[in-house]
């Protein structure tokens, strides 16, 4: 039975507790431990029962209990202090990092688009690392005082809940999110009606309402299509489940197109748009259409403005993870955009194709984002290299190491992931600034001052809590499966709070090789069952519902863990989420990461572990490739890449066993007279002091502002000044450039005759160039030089600018440049010509480059 009318019921708080509602509706509490303690103090059992949801908690707690709390002087004093600190934070009473660095009145407004945001346990609108990274990013943007808004979708069911059947096979269930018991509020007009936007689909328009989640000082706006205005079930289901294959293009249109329209409806006008992965790339098309309709620009003119102010972050290092839409789907859903932008369908499709002329190629959102962003980046140094290799064909003729995809290493919001116990140590020995200035290496260097005894006892408490948590969850899992009482009783004795504990928690995809350490069960049994020096492994993670090989990995772990000799040493915790992740990264001793090399974009779980003193053991991939030092953790293999994957698995699993047997286990159990593993503790300290100041989201935000956001904001000012005169001029210049580029040529190249070139010698190179209708101001002529490898290729190249020294008429010019011979050996050079314009930007964006024949 459907209701004829609906109404919202809110918690009835006594007058003395009214501030609890304000505190609860700002997700700042998610990383402020004093605030979490406040709600725990209100009712610890209810805090756990509501899955750490203060909104639901306040609506469920007995009125008599609230009235009793109102009379509790100690609670009221604590609440007043928490509220005062919260108000001071929100009012920015002290200058923020951004204000101190850039000034109060120079803030750009950035819109950060992501398909998922992992902010806290009770908002299950994320699936894994991408969403948790996005949530951590918003938290740091808030802490640093950046003018940023998040844009996403509010999923009715979100990602699935995981449970295993008796055979260990993953099953999925989907639970509805109750938005009215979450820390989100509808955006409304002055008359109280919800603010809505509409996105056109082939089946008709779809309406979405806008919810706001306040993440500290940052607003996160999320679209919701499950409303009565949408009469078709498939329209209401657009924002039903995260990454729904059936709804993929409709979701991505709602995120990109609907997200831009939502900001406009809220009277928010960003200067910079950041696409966190390609799911939101349609925002670029919507922005182009808006500039065309509002300012009378042509497609090419509007594209200049939009591209100059878009930032794109790619996270996917494997081609199989890149989604490509069939041409028919794009034609069906986006043909209207062709008429709105004044371009043909082929021109639209070309924006999403690596080879624009290939009519058989589908439409890729990553390609669309790369083509329409001024700045693109991978999420680690190695991932940047992999991405340049993956996407180099978008820039024909450009050397791979100059492909315009940079890298910004991912990080974590340290305050969100460090345990309460470890925070206490940091407060005492690092000083209060550790929580505010997480990128200062001098602060993290003070980890050495933490007494070994205190650090180790703190870490042991966290391991004890992890073991208790894992036992409890394992028993609940077995009860749900209908296991025998004897099996449940055995589970209560699983694990040992004093044993070396290995943690492994991440998405279960085949390339992450979760079972690499299980490859030789007999050898593993000898290692973990050693009575004097035992080891235990705690697994957690989900496979995608359609990923059968990933589910097979989970099943294999369950079956191995059931062996009599291993059942107390290996456990799998179902339904991995942020709560499970916190227990694991805060309580394990060793964090294991075993992806097949060059398949990890970054990975952040190991960073979270390191912040808690957990030591990493990982393949040299993702972030660990640039973080690893022998004194802070262990590397599985080196930089080897194998064609035979079976052989690679054999070599690297053996490397794990060897390191465990010969180095890791002896180091952990080497105890002095007072029972302290001094060598292990020294490595814990070295790891924290090396990793924490670099791999955090504060440093990430710093980098994005300095390298991308501020240059984009400056280009926005330049291109939109004087009724977008610069944008019109730049588009006209590029059209002129493309028209006359084919007639340009390099006629001759000569170098000073020198009988013997010695190190330190300077040699002049001249090039005779025919520019035709172009002028020397339109181009950059460069010497491209460097050492030559045995295959005849220039390596470690250097580009040297050449100046126009003479004009010969009829478009002919002489350019000169100077080579500096800095090292001996075989060297070589070539000459190339690139576009050049006074407006700063990517010289490779026009796709024009000419090399000497």
Short note summarizing the structure:
This protein is an alpha/beta fold and 853 residues long. It has four domains: 15-91, no CATH class; 105-407, Rossmann fold, CATH 3.40.50.2000; 445-693, Rossmann fold (3-Layer(aba) Sandwich), CATH 3.40.50.2000; 744-851, Immunoglobulin-like (Sandwich), CATH 2.60.40.
How would you describe what is shown here?
This protein is an alpha/beta fold and 853 residues long. The chain folds into four domains: 15-91, no CATH class; 105-407, 3-Layer(aba) Sandwich (Rossmann fold), CATH 3.40.50.2000; 445-693, Rossmann fold (3-Layer(aba) Sandwich), CATH 3.40.50.2000; 744-851, Immunoglobulin-like, CATH 2.60.40. The protein contains 29 helices and 28 strands. The strands form six sheets. Strands 1, 2, 5, 6, 7, 8, 9, 10, 13 and 14 form a ten-stranded mixed beta sheet that branches. Helix 22 links the parallel strand 15 and strand 16. Helix 8 (129-144) packs across helix 29 (697-740) and helix 10 (248-265) packs across helix 11 (282-295). The chain is globular, with a radius of gyration of 29 Å. The mean pLDDT is 94.
CATH architecture of the largest domain: 3-Layer(aba) Sandwich
Poorly predicted runs are none
Q: What would you report as the Rg, rounded to the nearest angstrom?
A: 29 Å
Name the shape in a single word. globular
Mean pLDDT: 94
User: How many β-strand stretches?
Assistant: 28
How much β-strand is present in the residues? 15-25%
CATH superfamily of the largest domain: Glycogen Phosphorylase B
What's the main sheet like? 10 strands, mixed
Total domains, how many? 4
CATH class of the largest domain: Alpha Beta
Q: Within the CATH hierarchy, at the fold level, what is the topology of the largest domain?
A: Rossmann fold
* H/I helix tally: 29
Percentage of residues in helical conformation: 40-55%
* Beginning-to-end CA distance, first to last residue: 77 Å
Structural class call reads alpha/beta
């Amino acid at each position: 039975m459907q209701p004829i009318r609906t109404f919202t019921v809110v918690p009835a708080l006594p007058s003395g507790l009214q501030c609890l509602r304000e505190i609860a509706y700002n997700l700042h509490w998610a990383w402020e431990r004093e605030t979490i303690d406040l709600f725990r103090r209100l009712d610890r059992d209810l805090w756990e029962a509501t899955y750490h949801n203060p909104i639901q908690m306040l609506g469920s707690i007995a009125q008599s209990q609230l009235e009793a709390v109102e009379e509790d002087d100690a609670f009221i004093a604590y609440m007043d202090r928490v509220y005062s600190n919260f108000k001071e934070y929100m009012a920015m009473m002290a200058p923020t990092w951004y204000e101190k660095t850039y000034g109060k009145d120079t803030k750009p407004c950035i819109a950060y688009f992501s398909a998922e945001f992992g902010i806290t346990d009770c908002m299950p609108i994320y699936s894994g690392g991408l969403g948790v990274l996005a949530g951590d990013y918003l938290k740091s943007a808030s802490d640093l005082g950046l003018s940023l808004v998040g844009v996403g979708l509010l999923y009715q069911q979100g990602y699935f809940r995981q449970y295993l059947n008796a055979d260990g096979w993953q099953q999925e269930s989907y639970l509805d999110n109750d938005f009215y018991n979450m820390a989100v509020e509808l955006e409304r007009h002055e008359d109280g009606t919800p603010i809505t936007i509409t996105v056109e689909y082939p089946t008709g328009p779809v309406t979405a309402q806008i919810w706001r989640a306040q993440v500290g000082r940052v607003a996160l706006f999320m679209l919701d299509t499950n409303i009565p205005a949408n009469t078709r079930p498939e329209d209401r289901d657009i924002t039903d489940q995260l990454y729904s294959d059936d709804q993929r293009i409709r979701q991505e249109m709602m995120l990109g197109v609907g997200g831009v329209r939502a900001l406009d409806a809220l009277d928010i006008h960003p200067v910079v748009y950041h696409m966190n992965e390609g799911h939101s790339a349609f925002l670029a098309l919507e922005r182009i259409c808006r500039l065309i309709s509002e300012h009378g620009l042509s497609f090419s003119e509007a594209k200049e403005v939009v591209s100059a102010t878009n930032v794109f972050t790619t996270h996917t290092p494997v081609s199989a993870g890149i989604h490509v839409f069939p041409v028919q789907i794009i034609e069906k859903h986006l043909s209207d955009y062709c008429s709105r932008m004044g371009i043909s369908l082929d021109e639209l499709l070309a924006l999403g194709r690596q080879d624009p002329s290939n009519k058989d190629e589908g439409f890729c959102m990553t390609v669309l984002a790369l083509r329409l962003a001024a700045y693109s980046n991978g999420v680690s140094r190695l991932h940047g290299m992999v991405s340049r290799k993956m996407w180099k064909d978008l820039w024909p003729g450009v050397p791979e190491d100059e492909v315009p995809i940079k890298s910004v290493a991912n990080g974590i919001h340290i305050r969100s992931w460090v345990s309460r116990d470890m925070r206490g140590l940091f407060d005492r020995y690092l000083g209060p600034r550790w929580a505010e200035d997480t990128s200062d290496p001098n602060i993290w260097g003070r980890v050495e001052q933490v007494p070994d005894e205190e650090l180790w006892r703190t870490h042991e408490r966290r391991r004890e809590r992890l073991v208790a948590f894992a036992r409890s969850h394992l028993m609940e899992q077995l009860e749900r499966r209908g296991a025998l009482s004897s099996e449940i009783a055995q589970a209560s004795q699983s694990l040992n709070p004093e044993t070396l504990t290995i943690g492994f928690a991440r998405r279960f995809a085949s390339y992450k090789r979760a079972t690499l350490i299980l490859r030789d069960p007999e050898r593993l049994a000898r290692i973990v069952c050693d009575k004097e020096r035992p080891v235990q492994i705690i697994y957690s993670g989900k496979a995608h519902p359609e990923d059968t090989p990933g589910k097979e990995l989970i099943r294999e772990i369950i079956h191995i863990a059931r062996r009599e000799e291993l059942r107390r040493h290996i456990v799998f915790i179902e339904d991995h989420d942020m709560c499970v992740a916190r227990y694991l990264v805060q309580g394990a001793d060793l964090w294991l990461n075993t992806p097949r090399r060059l398949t990890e974009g970054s990975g952040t779980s190991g960073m979270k572990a390191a912040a808690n003193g957990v030591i990493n053991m990982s393949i040299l991939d993702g972030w660990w490739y640039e973080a690893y030092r022998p004194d802070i953790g262990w590397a599985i293999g080196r930089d080897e890449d194998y064609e035979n994957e079976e052989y690679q698995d054999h070599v690297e699993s053996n490397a794990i066993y060897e390191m465990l047997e010969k180095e890791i286990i002896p180091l952990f159990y080497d105890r002095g007279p007072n029972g302290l593993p001094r060598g292990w503790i020294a490595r814990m300290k070295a790891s924290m002091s090396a990793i924490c100041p670099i791999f955090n989201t504060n440093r990430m935000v710093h980098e994005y502002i300095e390298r991308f956001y501020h240059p984009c904001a400056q280009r926005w000012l330049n291109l939109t000044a004087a009724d977008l005169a610069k944008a019109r001029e730049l588009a006209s210049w590029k059209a002129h450039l493309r028209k006359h580029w084919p007639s340009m040529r390099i006629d001759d190249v000569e170098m000073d005759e020198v009988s013997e070139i010695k190190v330190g010698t300077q040699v002049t190179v001249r090039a005779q160039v025919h520019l035709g209708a172009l002028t020397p101001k339109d181009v950059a002529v460069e010497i491209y030089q460097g050492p030559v490898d045995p295959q005849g290729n220039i390596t470690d190249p250097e580009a040297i600018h050449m100046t126009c020294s003479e004009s010969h008429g009829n478009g002919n010019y002489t350019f000169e440049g100077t080579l500096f011979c800095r090292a001996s050996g075989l060297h070589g050079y070539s000459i190339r010509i690139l576009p050049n314009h006074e407006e700063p930007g990517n010289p490779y964006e026009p796709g024009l480059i000419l090399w000497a024949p």
